User: Which sequence fits this backbone?
């Protein structure tokens, strides 16, 4: 905990699921947490207060629409006013529901200019815009770590997941390029690729129960993944224990992709 205490992580989309679990993991280890929310300010403020009360760290929530990548500059400017440094950036937020119509479905139903484009913006565009702003701050403190969340849906076929799966493959490739170019700034960049995780985003899938049953069947440990399963790996990649790991994708899937 000593090496991490007093540092600051920025997490996109941390009011539920994987993002919230990441915020808690970092806070448990003395890391200050700046995180974003999409629309529910009251819920986000409650989470921030709970993190501060439980772990004695500083936490604050900021609004962000990840479909508008121009918002990242003012977001980080606001974070600069409240935190004295940025050490880690976790690109986690994703979209589901109406914005992915035309991007979530069978291949012949995909609509490149609508849902598919939105998924790219929320996955790759948000990672690029957020990482660029975070890297400027990390360079000032001697380096840091960036982690993007990915999905094993880019390795194996998941019904209706072509739009998401291909963009997860794209963000993993972008992370490798970023790792090479940001390394000279002392910044490591990696991805954590999760198997199906029991979150609200997964529950939004029309075939959620089928996916859940198949995941448990395929898993070598006979269960669904939890947000905490991914949060541990995200946190590890930001610690000194991972100081020679960069440009990699860590697969956290309970063994579901090799069975």
Assistant:
């Amino acid at each position: 905990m000593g090496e991490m205490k007093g540092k600051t992580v920025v997490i996109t989309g941390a009011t539920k699921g994987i993002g919230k679990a990441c915020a808690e993991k970092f806070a448990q280890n003395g890391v200050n947490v700046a995180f974003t929310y999409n629309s529910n300010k009251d819920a986000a403020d409650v989470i921030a207060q709970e993190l501060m009360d439980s772990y004695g760290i500083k936490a604050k929530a900021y609004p962000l629409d990840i479909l508008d990548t121009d918002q990242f500059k003012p977001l980080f400017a606001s974070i600069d006013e409240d935190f004295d440094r940025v050490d880690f950036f976790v690109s986690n937020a994703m979209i589901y529901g109406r914005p992915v119509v035309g991007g979530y479905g069978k291949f012949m139903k995909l609509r490149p200019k609508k849902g598919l484009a939105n998924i790219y913006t929320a996955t790759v565009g948000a990672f690029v815009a957020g990482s660029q702003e975070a890297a400027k701050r990390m360079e000032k403190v001697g380096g840091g770590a960036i982690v993007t969340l990915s999905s094993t849906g880019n390795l194996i076929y998941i019904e209706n997941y072509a739009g998401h799966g291909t963009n997860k493959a794209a963000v993993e490739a972008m992370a490798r390029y970023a790792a090479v170019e940001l390394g000279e700034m002392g910044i490591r960049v990696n991805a954590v690729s999760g198997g199906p995780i029991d979150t609200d985003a997964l529950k939004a899938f029309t075939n959620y129960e089928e996916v859940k049953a198949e995941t448990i069947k395929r898993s070598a440990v006979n269960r669904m993944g939890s947000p905490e399963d991914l949060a541990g790996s995200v946190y590890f990649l930001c610690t000194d224990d991972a100081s020679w790991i960069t440009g990699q994708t860590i697969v956290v899937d309970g063994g579901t992709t090799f069975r």
Observations:
- The radius of gyration is 17 Å.
